[in-house]
Design a protein that fits this description.
This protein has helices spanning 2-20, 48-57, 75-82, 94-106, 156-164, 185-194; strands at 25-29, 32-36, 65-69, 86-91, 112-115, 129-132, 174-180, 197-207, 210-219. With 220 residues, the protein is of the alpha/beta class. It has a 7-stranded mixed β-sheet, with helices on both faces. Strands 1-2 form a two-stranded antiparallel sheet. Helix 3 links the parallel strand 3 (65-69) and strand 4 (86-91). Helix 2 (48-57) packs parallel to helix 3 (75-82).
């Protein structure tokens, strides 16, 4: 029933969103307020960002090295910075990084924003925390905006992620990734297992009709 409702409402929702997000919009978490460019993933549209924000807000981050891989709006990076972390935020969307610096300045928070396709341009560093809110719909993205939603028809994003990730994990690294019931969890888990990566649920939360899962990600 959920899939049927989504199929019926999707064309109308898509048109409405195009009208709404034609200009920068504001998003707020606690006292962090940011502007989001139309070409950047808007956290208003899903429950996952808020769930991940609440999760990160409970972590002790003072003095910790924190990486948000694929930061999008960067609101999670800004929260980590507010909590005292030394923050690196990466993305392949330069507009997202430009707006992150603007938002960091407006909120008087420090973030090091780096243009990088996953770990490609990130120097090897022992991060204490790595947080990932990935694209997971199996479709080839047509533009930079769609890369925040689609992981490729062959799940290419996850193939590359789980190939690179074990080299970034140390015994002290805590890595967390959020996924929705809307994605193919079994396929993603299979790609992880193929690369000797374990996904273990640490939080399951249902909001309205959607369940999200936060996984702890570790090397086998």
């Amino acid at each position: 029933m959920r899939n049927l409702i989504k199929k019926i409402t999707h064309p109308f929702l898509k048109f409405g969103l195009q009208l709404y997000y034609w200009k920068p919009r504001t998003y707020r978490y606690e006292n962090i307020r940011i502007k989001i460019h139309p070409d950047v993933f808007p956290p208003h549209l899903t429950f996952s960002t808020r769930i991940l924000l609440d999760f990160v807000d409970e972590l002790y981050l003072d003095g910790k090295k924190f990486l948000e891989l694929g930061c999008g709006s960067g609101i999670i990076s800004l929260l980590a910075s507010k909590k005292g972390a030394v923050v690196t935020a990466s993305d392949i969307n330069q507009t997202a990084l430009d707006f992150l610096y603007i938002n960091a300045s407006a909120n008087k928070l420090a973030v090091n924003a780096i243009y990088s396709d996953l770990f490609e341009n990130l120097e090897k560093e022992n991060f204490d925390y790595i947080v990932i809110n990935p694209p997971y719909y199996p479709k080839n993205p047509k533009n930079i905006r769609q890369q925040a939603w689609f992981c490729g028809e062959g799940f290419e994003y996850f193939e590359k992620l789980f190939c690179e990730l074990p080299h970034q994990l140390t015994n002290s690294t805590q890595c967390f990734m959020i996924l929705s019931q809307d994605c193919d969890l079994e396929k993603i888990k299979a790609i992880a297992l193929k690369n000797a990566v374990a996904l273990d649920i640490v939080l399951e939360k249902k909001v309205r009709v959607e369940t999200n899962f936060i996984f702890s990600v570790s090397s086998l």
